Here is the input.
Amino acid sequence: MGSYRPTWKSSLAAISLALAAAFVLAAAGPNAENLNPALGETAAGDLVADAVRAATKADIAFVQAGILKPAALPQDLTAPPPVAPPPPGGWAGLLLAYPQERITVLTLDGGVVLSALQRSLSVLPIPHKGFLQVSGITVLLDAAAPPMKRVLSVAVAGAPLETARTYKVAMPSSLAGGYLGFFRLFNGAPRQELDTTLAQALTSYLAAKPHVPRAGERLRPTRG
Here is the structure.
């Protein structure tokens, strides 16, 4: 059987898809309204990920887009959500699709952390519930690169990710269980299942830091 030779139409479609992925991530940077957590980093996604990491003192936190609700946020969250009627649980009820889901901490080597990030970015520009909002890390990426090759570098607390080192990674229990295509990566990893819920983590975090973080500083697209 002869080798496959792409037509001009298939080549143009591939280029268009890559350019669309790059545009989506570049445009979705400071998205404080949290309207597109399935397409790029959002301030509210950063906030929830920070709360999960703070509650567990983990090195890294992942929060999948499917756990987040779209919601507009003011910069200061000391007041209750400005909606009527107010959601049960305050900001946690407004931001979280499953506020009573518990948190799990996995022990993962750096290679698995890298693969999880590659998986998170691989479906773009299609919206994906498995897109990961992150805390504790910064990622330099090329959204126009082929899937599973889009992450260029990762830093954990300012230091380069070490693929052979292990890290504590906190996340919602559904994600730790392999939801949304992460089963192959997370199955069998040492884990600590906590009684702390996402709502409890976020409420406690906001009591200490009632401000929305600046988005666009953790998932950093390369610029042309």
